[in-house]
Amino acid sequence: MKTFRLLAATALALAAVPLAAQSAATFSPQRLSQHVQTLGSDAFEGRGPATNGETKTIAYLSEQFAAAGLQPGGDMVDGKRLWTQAVPLLKSEWQGAPQASLDIAGKATPLTQGAEIALRAPVNGDKGLSIDGAPLVFVGYGVKAPERNWDDFKGEDLRGKILVMLVNDPDFEGGEGNFGGKAMTYYGRWTYKYEEGARQGAKGVLVIHETDPASYGWATVKNSNTNVMFDIVRKDPAAEHPPLEAWIQRDLAAQLFAASGTSFEAMKAAAKRKDFRPVPLKATLDLHGAANTEVITSHNVLGIVPGAKYPDETVIYTAHWDHLGIGQPDAKGDRIYNGAIDNGTGLAQLIEQGRSFAKGQRPQRSVVFMAVTAEEKGLLGSEYYAANPIYPAAKTAGVINTDVLGVLGPTRDFTVRGNQKFGLLDMLVEEAAKRGRRYTPDPHPETGGFFRSDHFTLAKVGIPALSFGSGQDLVTGGVPRAEAWAKNYTTNMYHQPADEYSPAWDFSGIVKDAELLHAVGWRLANSRDWPNWSSDSEFRAARDASAAERGEAAPKKGERG
Ligand SMILES: [Zn+2]
After folding, report:
1. Residue 338: alpha-carbon gap to chain centroid
2. Distance of CA 452 from the midpoint of ligand 1 (Å)
3. How far does residue 371's CA lie from ligand 1's centre (Å)?
4. 555 vs 6, 203, 421, 534, 558, CA distance in Å?
5. Which contiguous run of DSSP H or E holds residue 21?
6. Residue 313 backbone phi and psi in degrees, to 5
7. 449: CA distance to ligand 1 center in Å?
8. Region for residue 255 given its phi and psi (left: phi exceeds 0; alpha: psi -120 to 50; beta: otherwise)
9. From ligand 1's centre to the CA of 379, what distance in Å?
10. Tens digit of each residue's pLDDT (9 = 90 or more) over 340-392
C-alpha cells in the first residue's frame, strides 16, 4: 500500500507542524444547515448556469468566501484577482429533427431521431451536419490503451469513416483485455469513445447501446442526447469531437452486422480479443441537419488561503454550485429544481472548509476552494478549469470533491466514487481510520460513477482527485436506514423539484465529514509529498508527464505513488 517515500514525507510534515494545529478545525452544523437552506431556497431558482439563479449564487458564494476569510482566487484583471473565473460555454441545439438514413447492403433504411438513433447536436464548432455516403466500420470497443497493451485500430486509416463501437471496455463481459473486469475504466465511457473517434480523424462515432454495459436503458440515452448540448469553448473543438456523435440501438447494430455476413455475437466475441482488427460494414450513412449554436458565459467561484512556504503549490477543494434551474413541473406543479442535497450539501462543506483553513494556522502550500459551474451539463466548469488552470495542474497536489453529502447524521464508514487506486485515497483511508471510520469501496464501479463528478475532469489531466461520499453505515440505524433513504431519494428527489431543504435533516454527519476532509487537506498542504495514481491507472501517464515540474525524478515504471 504505502511506499517508504510517502511515510517519510508524512513524518517530516508531522514534525514540522504542531499537533494542536491539526485538531483546530471545528465545524458548525448550524452554519452548514443555513447554507443548504439558503442555496436550496426558491429564491435561487435552482441555480441554472447563465440565469438569474447564477447571479444570486455567485454573489452568495463570493460573500460567504470573503466572510470566511478567504482571498479572491479567480481570474486576474488589472493585477487583481476576482472571485470568479469566466467559463464560456458552447450551446448547440438541432433546428428540427435531423434527417438520417443508412444504406444497408443496397437497401435504404430511414432512421428516426430518438427511435433507432440518438443524434447529438454538433459541438465541434459546426452549425450543422452534412454527411453523404460515409462508410461504416466496426471498431470493437474503440479503445487505444498503450499501458494495457490494447489497440482496436491497428493503425488503419479511419479518416472520414463512421466508427461503430461497443460501449464499456473490452473485458466487461470477459475476454483477453485487462481493464479491471466488470469495473469500468475510462475507456468504457461514451465520452472517451467520441474523443478517440476525433483522434482517429473519423467523420462520426455510433456507440451501440446495450443496457447492462451502459448501466442504463435507451430512455436515458434518448433523453440526454437529443436535447440541448453544451461543451466548453475549446481552442480546437474538432480535436475532441468528431462531427457526428450518436448512439444506436442494439437491434440496428445487429441488422448492420447481419447484412455484412456476420452477427452481433460474432462481432462482440471478436472485439474481446487482443488481435481484433476493424471490420468494414456493408453500409453507408447520409445525414443532414442544421443546428442553432451560441456561446454563453458562466462562472466558477474561487477563494484561496495562500501558502506560507510554497504558495505556488496547491491543494484544491471543489463542489459544483449549479443544479437544473427551472424546468418541467412535477405532479405538484413545482418547477424549481432546488438541488438542496445536490449540491447544496457539497457547497456548505466547501464554504465551511474554507473558513476552517482561513481561521487556522497558515498551511505551507496554498489551499484553494472552487465552486464549479455546469456539472449537470457534463462536468463543464471543472473541465474548463482543467483546460485553463489558474493554479498549474503539475503543482496541484490533490483535489477533494464533495458532490452530495449525507443528512442522516454520522456514519462508521465513508466511500469514494470508482475503484481507482492512488496515494490520495491512501491518505484519506489513514485519516479516517484515526477517526474510527472505515473505507467502503464503491459497490458498483461498473456503472462508471467515477466519471460522473468533477474530480474526474481534473484526474484526466493527471491531478490526483477524489469524490468523497459520506458512507452508508449510519451510527443511528446502520446500513438499512441509509439504504431506505437512498432508495427514496433516488425515486422521489434526485434531479427533481422535490430535492428541497428539510429542517429534519441532521448535519452532524457533515461536520464529521468536513473534519476528516480537513485532516486530509491539511496533511497534504503541509507535506512535501506528491501522491500519484497507481501504475495501472489510465491517469498515471498524464501525471508522470509533469514530474519534472514538481522537481520529481523521472518515474520508474511500476512504481506506485
Ligand atoms: Zn451533483
Report:
1. 21
2. 9
3. 12
4. 15, 37, 17, 12, 9
5. helix 19-22
6. -105, 140
7. 11
8. alpha
9. 10
10. 999 999 999 999 999 999 999 999 999 999 999 999 989 999 999 999 999 99
For residue 536, the model assigns a pLDDT of 84
- Average pLDDT of the chain? 93
Question: What is the identity of the amino acid at 291?
Answer: A
How far apart, in whole angstroms, are the C-alpha atoms of residue 545 and residue 13? 26
In this structure, what C-alpha cell is assigned to residue 243?
462531427
320 Cα–ligand 1 center, Å: 7
pLDDT at residue 482 tops 90: yes
State which H helix or E strand residue 118 sits in. Answer: strand 117-119
Cα dihedral sign, 449-454-456-459: negative
Q: Tell me how far the alpha carbon of residue 374 lies from the centroid of ligand 1, in angstroms.
A: 10
Cell numbers 471490420 correspond to 279
Alpha carbon of 405 to ligand 1 centroid (Å): 10
The candidate with the shortest Cα–Cα distance to 357, out of 528, 530, 515, is: 515
Residue 283: strand, helix, or coil: strand
Query: What is the structure's pLDDT at 2?
Result: 31
Judge whether 122 and 129 are in contact, CB under 8 Å.
yes
User: Could you tell me if 123 and 92 are in contact, meaning their C-beta atoms sit under 8 angstroms apart?
Assistant: yes
To which H or E segment does residue 32 belong?
Answer: helix 29-39
Q: Residue 169 — very low, low, confident or very high, per pLDDT cuts 50/70/90? A: very high
d(CA 255, CA 276): 21
- Whole-model pTM: value is 0.85
Distance CA 140, CA 143 (A): 8
324: CA distance to ligand 1 center in Å?
10
pLDDT tens-digit readout, 279-299: 999 999 999 999 999 999 999
